[in-house]
Amino acid sequence: xxxxxxxxxxxxxxxxxxxxxxxxxxxxxxxxxxxxxxxxxxxxxxxxxxxxxxxxxxxxxxxxxxxxxxxxxxxxxxxxxxxxxxxxxxxxxxxxxxxxxxxxxxxxxxxxxxxx
Amino acid sequence: xxxxxxxxxxxxxxxxxxxxxxxxxxxxxxxxxxxxxxxxxxxxxxxxxxxxxxxxxxxxxxxxxxxxxxxxxxxxxxxxxxxxxxxxxxxxxxxxxxxxxxxxxxxxxx
Lengths: 116, 110
Description:
The structure holds two protein chains of two kinds. Chain A is an all-beta fold. Chain A has strands at residues 3-7, 11-12, 18-25, 33-39, 46-52, 57-59, 67-72, 77-82, 91-99, 102-106, 110-114.
C-alpha cells in the first residue's frame, strides 16, 4: 500500500525559502502526478502545485512565481521549494498522489511556521 | 475566496441525513469529475468520493456523491458522531489550469 511522508524544517525565517520533501513508499513514483497542498491554521485547503514523474509541473497561479516542485525518481521523492516566505505561508503542508482526477493518497502533513 | 462554494457549516442529529453542496462553474465542476474529502480533527484529508459518485474501497455505502450541471452534492445518511469533520470538494479547473478546492463544510452531529 502506497504511503507518503513529508519531511523538512518546522521553522523558516521570513524572506527565506521553505523546502520540503515527500518520500513515496509501497509503490512506483512513475506514471502519477504528485501534489503539494497546504492548510493555514483554522482555514481550508489550498493546492500549491504538482509534478509528474517525467518532471513536468503545474502550479497554483497565485503562488507560481515563488514555487518550485521537482521529482527524484531514483529516490522515490518529490520536493517543494517556496521562496520569499512570509507569515502568510505558515501552514500544515501535505503531499498527495493525484491519480486520474482524484487525490487518493495523502501524507500525514507537516507544520511549517514562518517566524524570525 | 474559493472557486468552489460550500456552506461553511451544517448540523444534524445522529441517525439523520445531510447533503453538502458544492457549487462551481462550467470550467470546473461543469466539465470535470468531482471528488470529496473528509478531514477529521487533527488529521490529513481522506478521499471519500471520486469521479462524482464512486466510493474507494472501505467507504460505506451510506456515503454518496452526485453531480448536476455545475453543482455537486455529498450525501451522508445514518449520521454518526464519528462523521463530525470538515468536508471538501475538489476538481480541476480547465480555465485556471489548476486544481481547486471548496472552502470546506464543518459538519456537526449533535
